Each structure stands twice: as structure tokens, then as C-alpha cells.
Amino acid sequence: MATKIYTNKDANLNVIKRKKLAVIGFGSQGHAHALNLKDSGCDVTVGLYAKSKSREVAKKLGFKVMDTADAVKHADVIFIAVPDTVIPSVWEKDVAPNLAKGKTVLFSHGLAVHFKLIDIAQGVDVIMVAPKGPGHTVRSQFVEGKGVPTLVAVHQDASGKALQTALAWAKGIGGTRAGVFETNFREETVTDLFGEQCVLCGGASALVKAGYETLVEAGYQPEMAYFECLHELKLIVDLMVESGVAGMRFSISDTAEYGDVTVGPKIIDASVKKRMQKQLKAIEAGKFTKEWVGEWADGCKNFNAIRKAEAKHPIEKVGAKLRSMMSWIGPKAKIGKGASQASYVSSSK
Known about the structure:
This protein is an alpha/beta fold. The protein has 19 helices and nine strands. Helix 2 runs parallel beside helix 7 and helix 4 packs across helix 5.
């Protein structure tokens, strides 16, 4: 079945212009949604916990800032823009007690809802508006008069107008300029987790490290291994994003393309796909979410240990040296950060 795609003509911004909106959290997605909606003429309040460092930032940007519970009481549509692991506590303490029939709760990721980390009362609409890009891109594209492709979904439609609200919100942040794709909470959650774990983050980083280690262990210089297994990855990914796999192959040398089509399938073979299928089933069954929620509740001890070990991998040392010689690369991201619950909460709001 073809995916339903909505554009500007399918969404009515007045649906949310007549309502009070609240963005709970002022991190990557939260600040972008809030600013774009404000610029679209909507009434937006930012909800934050009492000691959040983001309160002054939001005020300077012209927003009314309230404590989270008060923002939920005040608003008709409430966007929960805090991390997955923080949502249950914020929901129980500040959101659920202040929800009333007729309100709408909005998410940009479906994990907490799909895997039932929160209890949702009847009488409220539950929707998703999920731009397929980081917050800074959602903001910069909007300012340029463009938009980021966006997903919408309806989990609970108490009013009969939940989809209209989701489309209006998507239009308010610029999503309908690029195209809005209809999905559901299960599909968005499962595909997002699978992509992160098996391809985009977990798969790519493991492949890069394995290639680097193979060359270095065979006696080749670490710098050469870094250039060939990590640095040039951006070139290939950019080509694929811009033109697809076929476009990437058109742009590289015949030697590289022949190696691609004849050797690639020997490395990423049927056994890899079988393990991907196994992990997909684990994600669908909720095993990964249960493990992650348990890890968080235990203070992220195992997660922090893995982070520290990964940050000490030789590729990080040689990479830092080489990147310092590349003037076109911006400020370096910090690695090996702690995963304390306090740091997650404060950095997300």
C-alpha cells in the first residue's frame, strides 16, 4: 500500500492557532518546534522544571515559561520533548495529573507510547509529529522558507480530529513544505530503533572500527586506516543521501564500484542479515526497550563502562589528531560523557 503523503494544501494552521500550545523541554527538537510555531503565529508556552538552565534561554527568545505541570494545565496541545527515559517520570509527576478531556498530547518518537512506559487516559488525543532531521536542521530549513520531511501518526483519536491537529502542527514547523508521511506509532518506533542499532549508529561504527583494526593489525599506518575507513565515509554517505546508492556508484571510480558490488556482499553477507532479523524481532518484542529501561533505572552502570571503553579506542586518538588539521571541521564533539540521570534531564530541557 502506498504511503499517504500530505503537503501544505492538506493542513490548516488555524486548527492550532486557535489553541494554546505547550512544549515540554527545550532541547534539540523542543526549541526548534517552539521557535517555528512561534514564527508561524501560534501561542506557544515552554514548560520546564524549576531549576532548568533553559528557562532563561527560552525567556530571552520571547517565550512565556512555566513549570511543567502548570504548562500542561494551561495548554490545549502538549508536546512532550524530553528523552525517552525521562518521559515516564515527567508523565507521572506533571503530565497525567493535569490532563483533561479534550487535550492533545504530542510526541516526536513513539517508544514510550508503543511500549506502554506510560498510562494514557481516555478522552485525550495522542499524536506524533516527527521531523526526519535534528532540531537545528528543522529550524534552519524553516528560516530559509523550506522544511524537513516529517512523519505523523495518531495513537488515540478521542476528538475525531487528531490527524487534523497533527497536520497543523507539522505545517507550523515547516514539515508540509517538504512532505508529511503518515505512519503509526509501532512502525515509527520499530524502524527507528532498528535503523539506529543495525545500520546508522551501531552498524556503521562497528564496521568502521573493524576495518580500522584490520588494517592497523596488518601493519598499516593508523593514519592511513583512519582516512580510508572513517574520514572518507562522509563522502560516500553524502553521495548516497544526495543521489541514492546508484548515484554514489556513478560518482566513484570504476575500480571502487567493482570492489563495491563484488566484495561488499561477501562482507555484509546473509549471516549479517539473519542477525539483523533476529534483532528486529527483539525490538518488536520489546526486549531492547526493557533492557534499556532497566539499564537506566540501574544508573547506567554498564552503559557508562562501555562508553568509557569506547572512548579509549585507538581510532579516537588518531582521529583527534587528524581532525585538528582539518580547518573545515567545526568544534569537536565531546566523547565519553557521563550518563547520569541528572545530566540527561538537565541537558534535555
